[in-house]
Amino acid sequence: MRKIGGWGNTGFLPFLRGAYLPKKWIKAIPITGIFAMFLFLSLAGCDKEIDEHYKRPDWLESPVYDILQAKGNFKMFLSCVDKTLYSQVLKGSGNYTVFTPNDEAFGRFLSEKGYSSVDDIPLTELNKIVGYSLVYNKYETEHLGDAQISGQWNVGSSIKKRTSYYKTIYKEEVNGKEEWVIDYATEGSGIRTPYKYIPIFTDTYFSTNRLDASDYNIFYPQKEYSGLNVLDGSILNKDIYAENGIIHEVNSVLYPLENLDELLKKPENSSFKNYLEYKIDGTALFVSYQEDKTLTETYKKVYPDENITSLYTKQYITLPYSPNVEAYQGKNSGNTEQDGYTMFIPNNSAVDNFVSGKLLKYATSFNELPTDVLTYFLSAHMADGMVWPSNFERAQNTNGEFLNGKGDSGLSFAESGMLAKTMASNGIMYNIDHVIKSKYFETVYSEILLNPDYSLLNAALNNFYKNSLLDDLMKSPITGYVEENVIILIPSNELLKEDFSYNDISLAFSFADGATHGTINAEDRLKRLIRMCIFKRIENDEVHTAIKDFEGSPALGYDGYGYAVNDYGDMIRFKDGQIQAVGNILDDDVVTAIEVATLNNGKVFAIDKLLQFSPRVTKSASNEGWEDQKLYTFIDSYVKQNPDAQVFKNYLDKTIYTATDGSIAGISTSGFYTILIPTNDVMQKAQQDGYLPALSYVEGLQPDSLTKATNFINSCFLSGTVVSDDGVARIMPGNYEKINLGTVYKVNEAALDLIAEKTTIEVSKKSNGNLVFTPKNIELGLTVQVEGITGGNSSVNVVRGIDKSNYMGPRAVIHQIDNYYVFKVNLPK
């Protein structure tokens, strides 16, 4: 192979003073190379006339080469230099930092590599060794751990420096054929001179980043951390000034580190690498090779003996970063010297077992799953930034997940199955004995994502709830949520197709029959049905509100039923593994739930029918089968089965109900309500105590009586939340010990300057889980303007019984109560 100036295809084509290059070679150099040459020209030398004009002062230090030669203990390094064009760099002008291995270090290197002398080292290797020892710009040891940003030293922020060595074209398989390939220098750039960086481990960087000697010894266990280490060596003699830079003597030969992409080519990383290169229908998902015809022609001239027919640029797409890019451009990138990337690579058996046992548990190949599955898997093993052992417990991957699965309460670095630790030129690679846990594969969402039978549900979640409900389904210790618990009922594609169709192109849902049903559109109905299947709870050492199963609660007092409020805000009831929402009750139908998985944030149940908020089965031919029942119809049904609520309804009918349209004044058709209905005896007691006028006065439309009765009835409607009597120690969802709910009754009293002032009821629970309701005062300073009063100053409690309370309706529930409460306005005297 023909060498240009003795450099070969090892990356670096300098244009040096006194170095003659034939015209045809100069023409063959790519534009980027020409630019680099002229840049180097400005740094490395001047033309002869300028040299004559600006003679070297006698007091100026000698060039690097001369100083090393004079010292006498760098003979082997200089012998390497002499065989390359770097000799012109070290003899010429410029501004470099040179990490120079002494002869003792070189002797060890020759012995370890099996060379008898420097003469045995191939030229390509010599260029690597010398080029990697040269760092652009002069760095005294005081600033080796600092980065220069906007002309200012950022102390303790630099972990590496850019060297003069970069890898040029190399061979790799592309579309089943070995081709020439070249890397980009940075993500998305057109520059193909990926200069390698050399890590420098300094006390300033370590103290700034709260690291210690163990963080160095993890990578170089047989070496001593000195606070001025370069790779596995230490700086012995520092800050030796030269005309064209500065010299630091090191006790190790510095050989270029491989980047992450190069490390991935090792056999122990093959399974993981296979998925980085995975193809579906012949198209690679992540790695991209793009033929560059212009660059091909350029490099044909640069390397005429290499038989280059095509040259491809390599990059990774749809991943957090490209492992083959040398320059760091991640979230912490003020300067590429300040950070790098980290990859955690499971061994082959760990990857293979995880893929077969988890990712392809329900599918036969990745063709049946969203392409995101592999993206999530790979991203779980990629961190944006250098993850040091000391910081491992707080470190997260690019999915925002703790690498140890639990954060500070999780396993330490030493306990985390590290098989190998390798410093790379663009970051760090850890080989591990396990797959990193991900929220996508360890939470309840995984059963939806990984099972093709639930692809429509997955599409709906991503379309409607990408950054909200979907995130809630993945809250777990992996992302720092240690007490969140989710129960989800998952409707299959078969169930959803009974009512809905999905357009893969427009990503829109519509009713399967193409018709319009009532006032609700298909997507709004689907959104509600999905949220009706989700139950968010809390589970920790003190609070246990998780729904363990749907077998019911015999001790609760409702014929064995258990109750819960779903994410939408509707109630369900359940017993013997069968569930009903209000629509299922109206249809006299049940939904059977079967547990299919327990994950780290809850449980997943398969269902044989959809939960319904309307009588979808029995009245599908009319709007009634698709829309919420009217609230008054619901109350009327309740009273028919519980005559002990008749007196309340009599007052309701004469105050806020309008018979012509079936509406209730002050009630929103889209609101959520907890309705508290006193028994007939309690209503009678309120009359006797003077807080409720006789019905005859109300029927007679006497203004004061009508207002008083209206306020009484309005105060029985608590708005905003459906509160179930579920026997759980907390009010769910929300995990409240107590909650204040506004009533429909608003106080208007000019004498107190109260205009539509909201009245509130405090809802709490006794130790046995029974609901208690307490009216709250409206106060101004120490003055009680409106006083919340209960009958006989006794508590107001739920009356349990299947016909009494937990009566489920449209965004509502009715509880019967054993006492009354009122809000008494205290007018100023």
From TrEMBL:
Record domain FAS1: where: 61-254, 282-436
Classification via InterPro entries: Adhesion/Biosynth-related (IPR050904), FAS1_dom_sf (IPR036378), FAS1_domain (IPR000782)
Pfam families, per database record: Fasciclin
Protein known as: FAS1 domain-containing protein
Organism (species): termite gut metagenome
Lineage: unclassified sequences, metagenomes, organismal metagenomes
